[in-house]
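Shipment paperwork, digital attachment
Item: protein structure file
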Amino acid sequence: MMNAVISTDQLTMRFRGCDALMGLNLNVRPGTVFALLGENGAGKTTLIRILTGFQKPTSGSARVCEFNPLTQPLEVRRRVGYVSDNPTLYDWMSVGQIGWFTASFYPDGFLQNYRESILRYEIPEDRKIRVLSKGQRAKVALSLALAHDPELLILDEPTSGLDPMVRREFLESMIGRAASGRTVFLSSHQISEVERVADTIGILHNGAMQACESLNDLKGSMTELTISMDDSLVTLPELPVPAVAMLEEHRGRQRQVIVRNFEPSMISAIEEAPGVVAVRMRSMTLEEIFIAHTRRGFGDRSSPPGPMFDLADGGEPNGGSSGDAVIASGESR
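Attachment content:
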């Protein structure tokens, strides 16, 4: 995508004994809140370090705001605001001093924007950084990150350890950010928070992107089926096209199957299959979808990297099989 704010091409990062990223392809459109979900160790922070020019990838490439963060890091940082889960601030400075100091690296208008933000958050400029609460420090870090009005705001677990009210204020401000045409890239494993603010969702597991599409499309395309059989050894019938069985678990005579592109009209065709006693379907929450994509077997590292994930068209996850979970044969993608 020519106008992608973030784009990666077969991005790979290998450390000794660890593949942090495996051929990652990603496009993030402008004016959206993109949420990257993943467990600790999934590769989220490694990706962010590459996007901000602090980590050289093993192979592949990335572009941020149409610049290469490896060869043009200053151009990228001029256009990006970044807030981590534990912002590094000079504790001996006051709130006002750190704004004045940071303003020296940016064009005119930075300090005025910073002061307006601090005033809005009701944090006194003469208060020392070292005496601020974690929530206040997060607000100072966000004010610093936004004062130059960046095209892209990157948040790496920004609400970790914050109280619920501060988290809500912090995240809801991101919606207004995207509404103004700017882009927010939010890395988190807090599913409920992400669901309130994100336009699009990417699920990263074991260094590979398992799903990447709009929140509504992702939730609308996933269904959990509970199929009761008259014999625990009976083979599960094939699903009608275009439904695809992504993950299957056996529980005695019941099969729990996570299915993509399932329609209620398909239930009758399954019920008519030999050995089927009853079929129940249920929509899945984002948390359940996330768990399904990150369970053993679903995101097997041995699976080859998937195709380009384009937020305009959505993507399909890779599959694998191991442990108690069984990927439906022939449906691994």
